[in-house]
Amino acid sequence: MNTIKIALLGAGTVGSGVVRTLAMNADTITGRSGTHIEITKILVRDAKKHRPEAEGIALTDNFDEILNDTEISVVVEVMGGLTPAKDYMLRAMAAGKHVVTANKDVIAEHLAELYAAAAENNVDFLYEASVGGGIPIIKPLKECLTANSISEIMGVVNGTTNYMLTKMTEKHVSYDAVLRRAQEKGYAEANPSADVDGLDAARKAAILASLAFDTVIGFEDVSVEGISHITEDDIEYGLNLGYVIKLLAVGRNTEEGIDVRVHPVFLPKTHPLASVNGVFNAIFVRGNVLGDAMFYGRGAGSLPTASAVVADIIEIARDIVSGTTGRMKYKIGERKKLCPVEKTKSSYYLRLVVADEPGVLGEIATTFGRAGVSLKSVIQARWTETGDAEIVAVTHVVTHAAASAAVEALEALPVVREVRSLIRVADGQEDLL
Amino acid sequence: MNTIKIALLGAGTVGSGVVRTLAMNADTITGRSGTHIEITKILVRDAKKHRPEAEGIALTDNFDEILNDTEISVVVEVMGGLTPAKDYMLRAMAAGKHVVTANKDVIAEHLAELYAAAAENNVDFLYEASVGGGIPIIKPLKECLTANSISEIMGVVNGTTNYMLTKMTEKHVSYDAVLRRAQEKGYAEANPSADVDGLDAARKAAILASLAFDTVIGFEDVSVEGISHITEDDIEYGLNLGYVIKLLAVGRNTEEGIDVRVHPVFLPKTHPLASVNGVFNAIFVRGNVLGDAMFYGRGAGSLPTASAVVADIIEIARDIVSGTTGRMKYKIGERKKLCPVEKTKSSYYLRLVVADEPGVLGEIATTFGRAGVSLKSVIQARWTETGDAEIVAVTHVVTHAAASAAVEALEALPVVREVRSLIRVADGQEDLL
């Protein structure tokens, strides 16, 4: 039996998971690949640092050593970031090496270019770990849902924010308290912006939408709203209305164009994504043949992410063994029209603080009506500490423009002290029976 | 662009879904396949019967017409049943045709033989629709979870029984009433045995366990218990204890051997499978790298099943276009030791009717203890219509042998009128955060 030699770029969380996985499941992986798989070089920043997990593997801080090693047939990029990761991948492909990556930044911005380079150089290029950690979602989209025209894809794709929202929901604690706890547990960074402002989720939204709708969607095409304005009061009101809050990556193929966004959403408790808790991720897909489907699992972490990376390595090994590398020439379709955020549609939850006067509920309902927004419900929820009244309204499906106009009109009313929250509510859930 | 010609064996529910899918998504399917896909012949029992859904496609009642048609490169078996489906598939492969099937009966009993025939004849052989309808699970097991050693696979894989148990849970109706309703809605057959006795689920359990543990598991290796003894009272008690009931296909790789069974299980409400309701299916997998994952969607029906069948056809079309058919020579590993049902382990829920006498709870607890079964809880639940007391006990994890011995010892007690129910409870759920 032959041996396939591979190199890792990066020895961080994911890289060490890949080393560990190939060691711990060596026999089954060899059986499934039809060949031995051996990591012969790892690119690191400091080749002199002792790395017990990479015992017996040559470390180098010089990418050319890997590039020029003709024995290495697969380069596994797990260093992250745009630069120099993208450049290294392109150079590896140009040198005839197959590439596996876990890099959401590069895939969210340069998938079309990487596909073209893979096709041109006749090499395999796989990136399952770039979205959803260990959850198989890229291959299902590329190979299992191919009979479908996909109308919607929605995902809980950021474990940090999902952990935070889950804790806020279960323990009724504030955003600030739960952020501190997430930072203590190592789930959130000291500067948590990439997670809590939805930027990480937006990159994954771009990747999912590109594949689901076969079009180039970049990070900058995603309309993004984070979770830092979510309060425990909104979560509590939502629960009473039958909703659970999630930060969702949403992609829709609408008549107004492709609509891709990241923002908090109130989901009905019965929605499959509503019970995706803690650091788990899930991606929900609606196809015109399959109907609704969901893929659930661990969206981050050393081993879960390595599960996806190593599966990609095994796929390439199988292709090498059967002499069928480069068989699929994937490409992403041309750019399609994007749906501007004002034209996107949703139900909305609003929380207002108003003067506690007779007739105020009627005045508010009338103002919604004049803005073209019809209401599912409007209730006076409670009195505030200052003796004002708090009102919670849920609208029918309206455009974002109409919802924004309603907010503006409400804010102009003398009785309205403040529009505290405007949160989308998942509409149009299919009957689950 | 070339055209790939395919034949369907069968024009029933799944067959007509395949015809419809290829028509309704023709352009995207052509784009993804790199070739046109055309159904040129359909094998039916009565070629004279009018079939508006197959307008323009030649019908035949003679399989040889398909076998000898050298233009047909893919045979899609959607007739179901063991005979003659298996024979037709083998003959199609021998004639150099690629085969797609949705046939759980054949796959559950003859997967190894079909793999061998595909390898020998250098053809593609795919069967995604045989488990979980439209849910991608076969390809994920074969290609996405390959870095893992799988310890457990559990699935809600029968829509009829899941519909029934969901309705019993939501509406507090009896088994008989819900069976009638399922029959009226066409979810259950006039003779419902294949569904309610767990036989359909057992075939899917055999397939899932074969792939998860890489060993030959046949239908006859699966220990099976259906749902006809489940009462609304048990469901109600379960809910109060925090459990939801599901008919599960379970496969485990244990120290005592491979353990494959189908039976009702009380799942904690927080388990991902617990919220899989109605006709939806889901398969939960635990791997030693990935951790827990779940695949959810529509497990039956014309279009959902066609989604999987057509994805398989597209995969073969891609292989034909790139000249890489027959590239994977799959085989199933040798038979492994099976875990006898007595040695399987679980927590158990028991419901007993006992004489309403002082000290009876103690006597029962002592009897459990003597049988080597320790209890998590034992409560007197209520009085029966005859003035006896009803007791509900939940055990810690014990062998099935110990649980059975406890039942026998309990039944021998003079105070015990009847052991009404013995239902497994899912133990060992991983911390979901």
Automatic annotation (TrEMBL), chains A, B:
Tell me the InterPro entries matching this sequence: ACT-like_dom_sf, ACT_dom, Asp/hSer_DH_NAD-bd, HDH, HDH_cat, HDH_CS, NAD(P)-bd_dom_sf
Q: Which GO terms describe its biological process?
A: methionine biosynthetic process; threonine biosynthetic process
Q: Where, by residue number, is the active site?
A: 204
Annotated L-homoserine binding lies at 189
Residues that coordinate or bind NADPH: 104
The record's annotation in CDD domains points to:
ACT_HSDH-Hom
Record pathway:
Amino-acid biosynthesis; L-threonine biosynthesis; L-threonine from L-aspartate: step 3/5; Amino-acid biosynthesis; L-methionine biosynthesis via de novo pathway; L-homoserine from L-aspartate: step 3/3
The kind of enzyme this is, by top-level EC class, is oxidoreductase
Q: Which cofactor does it need?
A: a metal cation
Say which family it is in. Belongs to the homoserine dehydrogenase family.
Would you tell me the protein name for this molecule? Homoserine dehydrogenase
Q: Which organism is it from?
A: Selenomonas timonae
